[in-house]
Fold this protein.
Amino acid sequence: MDISTLIISLAILVIFVGGFMFMLTRFFQSERERRNFELRLKYSENILPNKLQAYERMTLFLERIKPASLIRRVAPTEDGKSYEYNLIETIQTEFEHNLAQQVYINPNTWKIILSAKNATQLLIKNTIQSMEESSVKEIQEEIIKQSMEDSSPSSTAILYLQKDIQDGI
């Protein structure tokens, strides 16, 4: 066997091995893409419904803690201090009931939800403290009036939830 036959044989072998390696690499890349697609499909089948439900529940929470909604649901008491306690307790209970939803909510949006809850509680506290000598009926009217003058914190947070959903969570 002469050297030119050996070189041609080696070249054919290199081309064959190179082609085999190329095909093998393409096969593994294709398999990886297929598995990633299947994972995304499972993700959308399992996680997405939970995320949507979390966003729905937090929207409901924010609607329920709007001052006008709270005042309709929480029965008035004899004095402002106990009424303040009942309103804030209602907000806190609603929040604790939905606390696990933060796992599915965008972290920045969760901070906004938390801020809306705190701002609503602060609005109630400040209003009642400034009207110590007033009747509960007058306090209710003032809370509703103040929440209507300023955009309610809940409304702002709901806009962020809607934006997350529209952006594809």
